[in-house]
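quick one
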Amino acid sequence: MSAQPASRHRHGFDAGLFPLVEAIVGARARRDVLASSVTTLAIGGAIRALVTVDTAEELGKVVSLLARMDQDVRALGNGSNLLIADEGLDGWVLRLGASFRSVTWLAEDGTVEVGGAASLMSFARKVSDEGWSGLEFAAGIPASIGGAAFMNAGAHGSEIGQRVVRVYGVLADGTHGVWEHDVLPWSYRSSGLSPGMTVTSVVFRLIRGERSEISRLCSEHLAERRARQPLALPSAGSVFKNPRPDLPAGRVLEAAGLKGQRVGGAQISELHANWIVNPEKRATAGDVRQLIELCRTRVRQHSGIELEPELKVWP
Ligand SMILES: Cc1cc2nc3c(=O)[nH]c(=O)nc-3n(C[C@H](O)[C@H](O)[C@H](O)COP(=O)(O)OP(=O)(O)OC[C@H]3O[C@@H](n4cnc5c(N)ncnc54)[C@H](O)[C@@H]3O)c2cc1C
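structure w/ flavin-adenine dinucleotide:
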């Protein structure tokens, strides 16, 4: 499973730094926040420190302070692709505040800068309604703009990276960075941005289109989701990456007889074999991990395919 940040040794969580962080962000630094309250799977124990920042400067200050003290720092978006351990997270989780939800049109050619905390779904709907094409695929993806850019979220044959002009963010050492589209190694569910950095805003270029055609496409994508995905239940979307573009993970999981399989409170959706759901909100992270391992083992035995999780697992 993909862990983040990568391997570097870090010191343990230093609660003594809390007052220094509070001096920068005030009451927006919170202790022991349940991961289940900030993830769409509704699973996970206490995050030792959840810090909401309101400006890029604040973010830079907090990150550089924590980096100097070698603390574990992670960016949280909408928590729609995350599994956080039952024991919680002994580290600092940073979240962008409401001021990072702004949308600023930079030119009439469809160039627009969007804050990292803005909702991808709402932004995609807004621009689609206004006759801008390019984000129809995003209808129904409950991501933040920052998380979607970091993950290179995609659906229906399109990815967000295709629409990105540049990304602004703060690196793991607290310095500010700008990445033009072409310097990033965009790939399936990855922007290539380094773990530990935080995307603060993204500049997109959208394409003028026919409003009725854009709206038709969005509705079609949403209808397909409603028919094939268990949207009413807590989940984190697809659990595994597709082994190949022409071979969806759901198909190999279903072929291995995994639909409906349960471990504790976690279940492989009856509707879509690549979704793990938490129907009664009593699943533990341990249940989900076991179910993931069961899926990998069964698929390996059944078809020789090595499934790779798309879900990010903390720690
Ligand atoms: C109902 C449902 C449908 C979904 N459908 C799709 C789909 O069609 N296609 C698809 O690709 N995904 C889908 N997903 C998964 C998820 O929405 C995406 O992976 C999304 O990109 C995660 O964004 P987030 O803001 O929720 O990030 P989080 O889940 O909070 O974090 C995911 C990763 O991104 C990093 N991250 C978050 N915010 C930032 C930031 N500002 N800067 C840097 N790194 C950051 C985190 O550190 C973590 O590594 C779906 C999920 C659900 C629940």
